[in-house]
Amino acid sequence: FHLIGYGRSPMSDDAFRDSMGKAVAEHSRRTLEDGLWSRMAPNLRYHAGPYDDLASFESLAKIIDEIEHAAGCETQCLFYVSTPPSVFKPILENLGNSGLARRHRRTPFASKVVVEKPFGRDLTSARELNAVINRRFDESQVFRIDHYLGKETVQSLLVQRFANSIFEPVWNRNYVSCVQVTVAEDLGVGSRGGYYNRSGALRDMIQNHVMQLLALTAMEPPSSLDPEAIRDEKVKALKAIRPLDLDGDDSDVVRACYREGLVGGEKAQGYLEEEGIPEDSGTETYAALRLSLDNWRWKGVPFYIRSGKRMARKVSEIAVLFRRPPAILFSEGDRYDVSPNCLVLRI
């Protein structure tokens, strides 16, 4: 296993190894084993270069060839692109022009590319990015990922739904009153003001993390655990979403941004006072949507999805609110306050 870091800032291999060692020690759930790290560290190195410079990618290709020659066997390259969306295109183009995308193509050692969210800024830019990817890579080489799906609770959601006979029979319009998906943060934008002002809550959280949670909650059972089978059912659920009504007093969308206030008893500045935020910014830091799925399972059941910064507490959860039973035995409101059952899945 070899890891090559690529970035614009100059850095020595030793400095890169040191920073990686500190990061693993700080964030790993297991204690860093000195013996294991000492064997792995020599295989870490750093390569500096611009994202739009073909020569830098060609020199990277030579380094990879040297590693493969020293190993004495074919090696597979995995290019993990976690960068600002504005440089996705030159990176992918140079991976293609340098020959890195074609390494061992159509063999078990074919190169792979992983593209992190956000995947473009809108439909047009997403299609342009897809065109670049398809021009340089076969679809089997490409992974478009949302790191939120790596959370253990998210991965177990399918098990909770489809492996429990107590849940699946009541997971529909006959028993469910509404579904609420919430991803709330108690922090402000901090040092990410420049990036956040170009995206906002809708692009930063709603259209990726929150929509993935909605799809997993609303989808039909897949025919298998094959990734394509799960993807197809998620797509069906998303296609069933009715177009949003943005007019009138009962709009399906609410947008807002946080103002100056108190957090933990201490003063916190408003969004427009944050560093890097223009005074006339119209970017939202909170967004809430009411969605309706026009399919057999969920017809008439509203899905409320929301995400925001500077909320009262940090929480990520899916709340399934069930319908009330007929008010016969406990209909005396002054004596009984019977709330509907609510299943809450914390992420």
UniProtKB/TrEMBL annotation:
InterPro entries: G6P_DH, G6P_DH_AS, G6P_DH_C, G6P_DH_NAD-bd, NAD(P)-bd_dom_sf. Residues 159-347 form the Glucose-6-phosphate dehydrogenase C-terminal domain. Pathway: Carbohydrate degradation; pentose phosphate pathway; D-ribulose 5-phosphate from D-glucose 6-phosphate (oxidative stage): step 1/3. One of its GO terms (cellular component) is cytosol. One of its GO terms (biological process) is pentose-phosphate shunt, oxidative branch. Residues 1-155 form the Glucose-6-phosphate dehydrogenase NAD-binding domain. GO terms for molecular function: glucose-6-phosphate dehydrogenase activity; NADP binding. Keywords: Carbohydrate metabolism, Glucose metabolism, NADP, Oxidoreductase. It holds the Pfam family G6PD_C. NCBIfam families: zwf. Belongs to the glucose-6-phosphate dehydrogenase family. PANTHER family: GLUCOSE-6-PHOSPHATE 1-DEHYDROGENASE (PTHR23429:SF0), GLUCOSE-6-PHOSPHATE 1-DEHYDROGENASE G6PD (PTHR23429). This is Glucose-6-phosphate dehydrogenase. It comes from marine metagenome.
